[in-house]
Specification:
This protein is mainly alpha-helical. It is built from 22 helices and no strands.
Length: 442
């Protein structure tokens, strides 16, 4: 009798799971190599006053709750304040906190792919490498951006908890709590509520759970905007109505923010890929439940871009080209990729994959193209990230030198390298840093 063929699927899954955590190692290495301990931009007027109040025993809930440029950042404020008090305002430590949040988000993404999507084993690698892509230089090397990493983690924790809440009811409470935390990380955190509702509906949660979700979402949103006050920079809601073409250009550029070149073309390509994968799903009648993770991630990224477009398009197209926005645009690409894999459905062994490729050649071609493009993106982003990281490190090292000699340095130079709104503000706060042996004076 012929020997039965060996099934290597289990080994492949373990291999894929292990390789999926290589990019987070690169992420930590990047911070270690290019991160610089110096107070930078929003940390001056966002985190530093809270740290001083905490150190003096005067920190209040009202200070933690106060909006920063229209963002309620209760939880990030609390975490960064405690971290900076313990570590003497060490910005690099805060960067590592962001990396830990990204690591947790990566683990949740890999787990969700394994339970909800055919993107298992080696098929999860493109999504894992994208999540930690070095195109996100600003968010990686800017301590204040911890809020964005925390928001990413809360989004994926919400989806992972909703996924298993039908088996363990207490996980629904975890999903609600994660969404509440996300709501008070930044304005974009409120997007977790509609995305969670979409995911829960596709998952088939009971109506009473969905109704409870909507009620808590309404309460959290009302609390967020209650006494919010003026939003900076000031924009006008009617601007996009009067300038729709500029709004569309801004949106497309924002989508293409995952690339430092040809952003408009890349943005159009992402929109085109979304339409193609959507058409394939309809053509092959893929159950929408199988697409729930892909749809949730794609929807969050698109809603984020619409939110940014509404608040920043009036300020000029240059605002669409900041690398910090790439973090949530990466979710759009991950959603497109997972959608294509859901159409192809490559799980079930080599013979099953060959059969599906034969039956769905267009889906196979699109999936192969996406894998190749993602591989090219990751392969390109590492050397590019090194170059940009060197530039960031050089600029921050100049900032360190200027801050240490703040008395002799002109205010415009301090503003250029440390805090754009004003170098005089730096001159007022630098003696406080020096007195407490914080940051570069530690």
């Amino acid at each position: 009798m012929p020997k039965p063929a060996k099934d290597f699927s289990g080994s492949v899954r373990v291999l894929g799971f292990g390789l999926a955590f290589i990019p987070i190692g690169i992420y930590f290495w990047y911070i270690r190599t290019f991160g610089v301990n110096v107070v930078f931009q929003d940390s001056w007027n966002g985190t530093l006053p809270l740290v001083r109040a905490f150190a003096n025993g005067q920190l209040t809930l009202a200070q933690l709750w106060a909006p920063h440029n229209g963002n309620r950042m209760l939880l990030p404020n609390l975490v960064l304040t405690i971290s900076d008090v313990v570590n003497r305002v060490d910005s690099k430590t805060d960067m590592y906190l962001s990396a830990v949040a990204v690591l947790a988000a990566l683990a949740l993404l890999v787990g969700l792919c394994a339970t909800t999507s055919p993107a298992r084993g080696l098929w999860v690698l493109p999504a894992a490498f994208l999540l930690c892509d070095l195109i996100q230089v600003e968010n990686i090397l800017w301590a204040f951006q911890f809020a964005w990493a925390l928001g990413m983690f809360c989004l994926l924790l919400t989806l992972a908890s909703l996924e298993r809440s039908d088996r363990h009811r207490w996980l629904f409470a975890v999903a609600v709590a994660a969404a509440v935390v996300a709501s008070y990380t930044s304005l974009f955190g409120l997007l977790v509520w509609p995305v969670g509702l979409l995911y829960g509906a596709l998952k088939g949660l009971r109506r009473r759970y969905l109704a409870a979700w909507v009620l808590v979402a309404a309460a959290a949103t009302w609390l967020y905007f209650r006494n919010l006050g003026p939003i900076y920079p000031v924009t006008h809601p009617s601007y996009l109505i009067a300038h729709p073409i500029i709004g569309l250009r801004f949106l497309v550029l924002l989508l293409g923010d995952v690339s430092p070149v040809h952003r408009f073309v890349v943005g159009l390509a992402i929109l085109g890929a979304s339409l193609v994968v959507g058409w394939l799903a309809l053509h092959y009648r893929v159950p929408v439940q199988r697409m729930r993770l892909a749809l949730a991630l794609w929807t969050f990224g698109i809603l984020f871009d619409l939110l940014v477009t509404g608040g920043r398009a009036e300020l000029g197209l240059a605002y669409a080209q900041s690398s910090r926005y790439s973090t949530f645009n990466i979710l759009v690409i991950i959603g497109i990729y997972l959608g294509a894999v859901s159409v192809l459905e490559p799980t079930g062994g080599w013979r099953h994959l060959v059969a599906n490729v034969t039956q769905r050649p267009l889906a196979a071609g699109v999936s192969a193209a996406l894998v190749a493009l993602i591989a090219a993106q990751v392969a390109w982003s590492i050397p590019n990230g090194v170059v940009v990281g060197q530039q960031f490190r050089a600029n921050r090292e100049v900032a360190v030198r200027l801050l240490r000699h703040y008395r002799a340095e002109p205010a415009p130079l301090l503003a250029r390298y440390l805090f754009g709104p004003g170098g005089q503000y730096v001159k007022e706060w630098a003696p406080i840093l020096q007195h407490h042996d914080w940051s570069v004076f530690s």
